[in-house]
Specification:
It is a single chain. By secondary structure, the chain is mostly helical. The protein has one domain (about 55-490). It has helices spanning about 1-25, 35-45, 55-70, 90-105, 110-120, 120-140, 145-170, 175-200, 220-225, 245-260, 265-285, 290-315, 320-340, 345-350, 355-375, 385-390, 405-435, 445-460, 470-495. Helix 15 crosses helix 17 (about 405-435).
Length: about 525
Amino acid sequence: MLRYSLIALLAIACLIYGLAFGTVAPSRMMPFAVPLALLFGLILWCLPAGEYAPTRVLEPVFLAFFAALLLWPNYLAVAIGNLPWMTVLRLTGIPLVTTLLACISISKTFRTTLSNILAADKVMTQLVVALVGLWTFSLLLSRNPGMSINHYILTQLNLTGIFFVSCYLFSRKGFAEFWVRAFLAILAFICVLGIWESRIQHLPWAGHIPSFLKIDDPLVQKLLTPKISRELIYRVKVTATTPLGLAELLGLSMPFAIHFLLGSYRLFMRGAVALYIPAAFLVILHTDSRLGVVSAFASGLFYVLVWAVLMWRQQKNNLIAPAIVLSYPALFAAFMAATFAVPQLRYKFWGRGSQQASTQGRIDQWEQGIPKIISHPFGHGIGQASPSLGWSTPGGTITIDSYWLSVLLEIGILGFLVFYGLMLRAAFVAARTAITLRGQPETTLLLPMSVSLITFVIVKLVFSQESNHPLIFMILGAVLALTYRARQYTDAKAVIAPGVSAAGPRPAHELISRR
């Protein structure tokens, strides 16, 4: 009897689904994808257990997503009717997260490995879980559920899913260094495009876009229009949607470039980054972005401090490292004084008189946003920062300039503490692991990762765009994975008997399957 009742209920639900689809489609298609997504998730959950999980697929799809994130303008997409834009990020991100879920459902070995990696720092893992929970809870507070659900799905694909995939992939030997090399190589190519763009004063592909990638949307047309500053300076953006987004990306790359320049790497690699650093800074100047200059200098200053602490710990007789650490407060104060005393530094850091309008705009946004935060301490819902703030430019565009303010408006005060607590905790764990757990060359990559996360927190005070956030969640996953590997390596060395060669037992991290 129960079986027939369930079949009848299913038939009624399908009838209602079909009637609703015939009534409102194609103007509203997305709600009808929810049952199909849930059904697909149920199929993944019911897959039989075994060791046939497609773990080998994760790496190439992840690298495709990574390349698309940096190289492909996200506004070039296929738009069919009222369906969401078919961007390259979605075409790579959805298969990537689907493969991850399949691996979790099928393979016990995969689940065990991922669980062990997440246990490398339980505080970070708890903060990630709490953040996902707050994003989910905020859906109940949204005044525009459709917009919030769309933003929530993209967040789970591009941030949460990428974090868990990164935890697994970065635990593989050699992957972290390969990722950093690919990151810098791609950005070097972007710098070449940026210099070219600054010479021709427009995007190189503007006017050469195939018809099937053209989207008839005012926002897209605005993105393709040359961006000119108030000083009549052309502002390059290459594959980013804004010059600020490109400046942020290049600023976040600086710690990695400095690391390769100062580290024990081959002469060719050090020479390559020695050319990349001035090229990247030149492109940052062509973006006419203060945040890019600040992030580049902050990356250098923070990296020098962490590097000096590491050298002081490793080389007790080194006099340069303790001198840098002990004199660092004075050096930092002198540099900040120079940003006020030296005209060129003052203009790049604090802006000219013509840039005071944007500074005043950020101040006005905070003054307008604080009462809204107090009245809604749990937020207004994910994706609702700009509508809830209601601040618009003189041209009538609703916008928000600070991601600190965005987080407070979307998921509240607790969400702000969780989000930025996660970033600072990861930076601390990365620096602590690199300084205290030595042995593997890849462990030192945690130094630039720590500095990049700190720079990200600083930049987000004045920049709200989320286009580079998947990169940050890759770094978060890498921090956990490399911390896990460093501890496995240290534990393996500790149990080697005094008379046994270190080359005998293989470290546990090398036993991780490369399926």
